Automatic annotation (TrEMBL), chain A:
Function: Plays a role in the assembly/stability of the mitochondrial membrane ATP synthase (F(1)F(0) ATP synthase or Complex V).
Source species, domain of life: Eukaryota
Family: Belongs to the FMC1 family.
Gene name of the encoded protein: si:ch1073-314i13.4
Protein name, per record: Protein FMC1 homolog
InterPro entries, alphabetized: FMC1_homologue
Automatic annotation (TrEMBL), chain B:
Family, as annotated: Belongs to the ATP12 family.
GO CC aspect terms: mitochondrial inner membrane; mitochondrion
Alphabetical UniProt keywords: Chaperone, Membrane, Mitochondrion, Mitochondrion inner membrane, Transit peptide
Subcellular location: Mitochondrion inner membrane
Source taxon at top rank: Eukaryota
Function summary: Plays a role in the assembly of the F1 component of the mitochondrial ATP synthase (ATPase).
Protein name (database record): ATP synthase mitochondrial F1 complex assembly factor 2
Amino acid sequence: MAAMCSALRVCRGILKEIRSAKGSGYRHSPVYQYVLQQFRKNQVTGAQLCRAQMESLHAAVSYRCLLASTRLHQRLHLQYHARGEHTPQQAAALVGLRMPNQPGGKGWET
Amino acid sequence: MLRNICRYHTKFGQAIIWPFSFSYVKHVPSLSTQLQKAKYSSATAERKKFYETVSITQGEGGLFEINLDKRKLKTPSGKLFTVPNEALAIAVANEWDVQKDTLKFYTMHLTTLCNTALDNPTQRTKEQMISAALKFLETDTICYRVEEPPGLVELQTNEWDPVMNWIEQRYNVVIGSSSNIMGPQIPEETKETFHQHLNSFNFWSLTGLEFVINQLKSLVLSFALIDRHLNVEEAVLLSRLEEEYQIRSWGNVEWVHDYDMYELRARTAAGALFVHLSSEKTSVKKKILQD
């Protein structure tokens, strides 16, 4: 039972990732249909015993991890690393600091 | 007809240029590496998305191919991109399908792995790959222990020892750990056992396994992951144990620690999935009903 519950959770997790990556119309993508079909096929029921259930569950967990980590990594990449070098002001703001503000200029401008 | 084909070729030749780099190219500097570098530029390069739909077809020999609109996907060296099973084909197709305006090749780990296996850019043999994998055993992350601070020592003992015990029992070998800079003395029998085990992998899964070992910096953790003793999150956590310990005392920096962790997780998950998918064969046999 515990395995079943977690399989359901993994399945939902994967479908959620597909939805957030694809947007609307995600239900028609082949990967959505394939994942659902695999989970249905490997279900343990009274009539059917699946020896490879743990193996496919492990693969499903890996796939969920792949999709989620890729999304989160890409988000951080776009936020921090994709825009080239930061200006001193932006770099300071990242760690919660501000560049000093000198009213009379810094002295080296002409 | 001929003109059409020519046009198709020019279109195609320009359409798919491959800005991939392979992470383990770095480890084996050779002439061929230099040549490859010319062709495979930075992995962070992006291209405009040039297709609308992605589909899969089953071609000759039961191999699966990826189609971007009407064009067939090819590898960086120009071979036809084919994968041995449907699950892998669907996962790769999904990677292409979810790209938005630009193609972000650094997020397409499974495609990269398939390309590496198909092209074999550094021209390596199976034997070379096995010895490269075994070399990691001598400097395996979880064999090297610290003597201070006490908190980290305790953490390493509690977290790494169970995995070590598991692998020693599973393969009936002796590995051991050491706090010496020279590392533990690995017996020849242990290497022989792992050599035999690695030999049972096919070329594709060996490619994936080597990728995982390179990510986790540990043969032991990689075997634990591939043998389904650990899942990806656990394996990555164990591989980054010291970093996690430092984060606990000094704080987490999102754009370094989390960034690295998610990248490591994605790469490790892709590698593990690649090994599992390329070493399994699924076939469906139907009974023919007779009247």
